[in-house]
Amino acid sequence: MKKRLLLVLFVTGLLVLALGGWMVQGLRWAATGGRARGLPQPA
Question: Is 3 helix (H, G, I), strand (E, B) or coil?
Fold first, then answer.
């Protein structure tokens, strides 16, 4: 039973890390202007 709990925690942790990394990348992409990255950014 304890092994199953550890496995669930491990998988959940991996999912949280993956989602966190994806969100950070999305925020960075939005902060850099997204598709309009080639255009000059206003100061």
Answer: helix
At 15-41, the pLDDT tens digits run 999 999 999 998 888 887 766 555 565
> Tokens representing 38?
């080639």
This prediction has a pTM of: 0.59
Name residues whose C-beta falls within 8 Å of residue 33's C-beta, 6 or more positions apart in sequence: 39, 41
User: What is the distance of C-alpha 12 from the center of its chain?
Assistant: 14
Which token pair is 40? 């000059």
The half-sphere exposure of 10 on its side-chain side, counting CA atoms within 13 A, is 6
The answer to whether the beta carbons of residues 34 and 26 sit under 8 Å apart is no
